[in-house]
Write a structure and sequence with these properties.
Length: 710
């Protein structure tokens, strides 16, 4: 029954779109109306493709190169390199399908089937898709690139060519001849191409006024276009640093010590003039953040990153709307080709649901209103797993083609089709967290811990119920669907473990503490065992951008919590900060609440950037203490370093722990412990801790875990 219900949902969804309006153009009606497929110039292969797809509906059509002489309906296929994307137009007694290339024509054909028949990417392998009537709107006029000329949801699913055909999306690999900060890989850089910085050649940046650089790029671009004419977009941008060339030519062009846009876009204009059939872009980023001081060619554009925009909120309703709109406005004076680089996952936790598709829909409408013509949605880190990535790839594809798309309807269609055993419950859950996130005005960072998700949308009880539903229905999951279900379950179980960890010692945490006894949550071992099994079954190991693995994560649970149960005389004791705390870490409660830090900096650590962190508490309840210890995080990538020393002052006694950790070869991330014996006298009433940074890292941050006193 469940399979049939899911399939009926698909049919109902597409029946609504197929038969909208009684005044439609009847393209096919069983026993009465039957079109032929008329191909022009070199579209015969596409005509064969279309006929093959019609056959899946039980409809047998003929192909002809001759224009039909009767008034009976027909479908006309044509390639026109002068247009962008594809168009579907209903004229008189025929449907015209025109595309700029053979690939675009395939996408156009699938767009037709997805929108006006019961054949789509979900049903393409089904049998018995018999259809008795096909109706398209009278005077239909659809242009695929009318709103957005570039559409890329950068998820693993979009790497599949079939996905792109059915969803009319682009991909970096096919479209861009040069992407990102990769000029150094695209050409051989010679000393004559080095930037002049402070009067000296500097190989860490390029001189965009260099004739040698221009010549080398022209040769490489010509070769790329000759090998692959479809890869006709080129990103010409400086290396990823703040250096700017200030040679005589660049200064004359308009460069300053902080602005490279004049020289960069002067070079791009020359390349654009030489290759008018290609498109050239740079980015609004660091030294090219501001538009150039002269107009650019029609085939030149900019890619603007939303990194500096607040995340997880509807921008049009925020106090940032005016400043963001101004960013687009100033670039519109330079170019009409404004692409956007947006973000769709939590890069610190690939397993977090990060339900912001509905929010992005509102923001896409805002972006388009402000002149954006192309979107790159960064939803995967070089093809890595992302929670609900399959669903998001599909939903973002729908949005990029129609920013008014019904996301709830598409969510149910996708999840109930892909996960028939528990799709309804899964769709209910995902729609709910999307709606909760949309209605909550808090931000949701693309780098952040699980508490950020809790404040925005994540409810532990709802998550636990969904996990139980999936586990209970495992026996109903077909073997072919097992890996997809396991992948989904992996992310849900990981999220729940993170909630147990940040909740600490509490009823909904990893343990409870009653009458001096710590009792671990019985679900902890079950979930850790399940996480290990699922990671092995799915072959998914890395769970964030910095590369921490699930095996490391499980080991941390065992070494820092399970086999070393929390014991602390200072549990829930308040440590008063006598020095400045960072804005985002303005309370010291995390130092004594029983939450334990792992190798990720964003959960259960107190981050502080002062040169000397000073903390103070009373000695009440600590008279039996013999040891004080604090753990610190060393995370080279995020520039977090342990201190030089920790000093403890109790009465007349001083205790000092010298750390002075230096960077070691091969070390990128570890936990460093400071420990010292202490003694508290009967007349001692204050305990003070001073944590001093290493001199060479005074501008870096420290991360402190629990202050444990035993």
């Amino acid at each position: 029954m469940q399979k049939r219900t899911s399939f009926l949902i698909i049919l109902a969804h597409f029946f609504i779109t197929s038969c909208a309006g009684s005044n439609g153009f009847v393209l096919y009606k069983k026993g009465e109306v039957k079109p032929v497929v008329h191909y022009k110039n070199n579209t015969k292969p596409a005509a064969g493709d279309m006929v093959a797809l019609f056959s899946k509906l039980g409809i047998s059509l003929t192909v002809t190169e001759q224009l039909p002489k009767t008034n009976s309906p027909y479908i006309q296929l044509e390639i026109n390199p002068e247009i962008s994307g594809f168009s579907l137009t209903q004229k008189e007694n025929y449907l015209s399908v025109v595309a700029s290339s053979a690939k675009d024509l395939k996408q156009a054909i699938r767009y037709f089937f997805s929108n006006y028949t019961t054949l789509n990417e979900f049903t393409k392998n089904k049998t018995k898709l018999l259809q008795e009537i096909i109706v398209v709107p009278m005077e239909l006029s659809y242009q695929s690139d009318a709103v957005l000329a570039y559409k890329e949801p950068y998820f693993t699913q979009n790497f599949d060519s079939e996905f792109r055909l059915w969803n009319n999306t682009n991909t970096l690999e096919e479209t861009w001849g040069l992407w990102g900060h990769n000029i150094g890989k695209f050409i051989k850089v010679t000393p004559k191409m080095y930037a002049i910085v402070n009067g000296e050649p500097n190989e860490e940046q390029l001189n965009f006024s260099s004739p040698e650089l221009q010549n080398a790029l022209e040769v490489a671009i010509a070769e790329k276009l000759s090998d692959n004419p479809a890869a006709n977009k080129f990103m010409v941008m400086p290396y990823d640093n703040e250096l700017t060339c200030t040679c005589e030519k660049c200064i004359k062009t308009g460069n300053t010590k902080t602005n490279a846009s004049p020289a960069v876009y002067a070079l791009i204009n020359k390349l654009a003039a030489k290759f008018p059939m290609a498109s050239f872009f740079s980015t609004a980023y660091i030294t090219t953040e501001n538009p150039p001081n002269k107009p650019v060619n029609a085939n030149v554009g900019v890619m603007i990153s939303t990194m500096s925009f607040p995340k997880g909120i509807v921008l049009a309703h925020s106090n940032h709307a005016a400043s963001i709109a101004e960013t687009f406005k100033k670039w519109q004076k330079t170019t009409q080709n404004i692409y956007l680089w947006d973000y769709a996952i939590n890069f610190d936790n690939y397993f977090e649901a990060y339900p912001t598709v509905s929010i992005t829909q509102k923001n896409l409408q805002f972006y388009v209103k402000n002149g954006v013509t192309g979107i790159f949605i960064h939803g995967s880190d070089e093809g890595s797993f992302a929670a609900f990535g399959d669903l998001k790839a599909y939903l973002y594809a729908k949005l990029l083609n129609n920013i008014q798309a019904d996301l709830k309807q598409h969510t149910r269609l996708f999840l109930e089709t892909k996960y028939p055993a528990f799709g309804k419950e899964l769709a209910d859950y995902y729609i709910e967290i999307e709606q909760t996130a949309l209605n909550n005005k808090r931000t949701l960072d693309i780098y952040g811990g699980i508490k950020n998700a809790v404040h925005k949308y994540l409810k532990q009880d709802d998550l636990a119920k969904l996990i139980d539903v999936i586990l209970a229905k495992q026996q109903h999951i077909k073997p072919t669907d097992k890996k997809a279900a396991n992948t989904l379950l992996l992310s849900l179980v990981f999220q729940h473990l993170e909630l147990l960890r940040v909740n600490g010692i509490a009823e909904n945490g990893y343990a409870t503490f009653e009458r001096g006894k710590l009792t671990l949550n019985p679900i902890l071992e079950k979930y850790l065992s399940l996480l290990k099994q699922l990671s092995s079954a799915t072959e998914i190991e890395k769970y964030n951008e910095i590369g921490i693995t699930i095996s490391t994560y499980i080991s941390a649970w065992h070494s820092r919590i399970i086999i070393a149960p929390y014991q602390n005389l200072a549990y829930h004791k308040h440590f008063k900060a006598k020095s400045k705390l960072d804005e985002d870490y303005a309370t010291t409660d995390i130092l004594s609440d029983g939450t334990i830090g792992f190798q990720d900096y964003y959960n259960n650590w107190l981050i502080n950037s002062t040169a000397l962190l000073s903390l103070e508490t009373t000695t009440a309840g600590l008279q039996k203490a013999t040891t004080l210890q604090i753990d610190f995080l060393y995370d080279k990538k995020h520039k977090i370093y342990p201190p030089e020393k920790v000093s403890v002052y109790i009465g007349q006694n001083n205790y000092e722990i010298i750390l002075g950790e230096k960077e070691e070869v091969g070390d990128t991330r570890k936990i460093v412990r400071a420990s010292t014996p202490i003694k508290i006298g009967a007349n001692d009433d204050t305990l003070r801790i001073e944590i001093k940074k290493q001199a060479e890292n005074r501008k870096r941050s420290m991360a402190c875990d629990e202050i444990t006193i035993k």
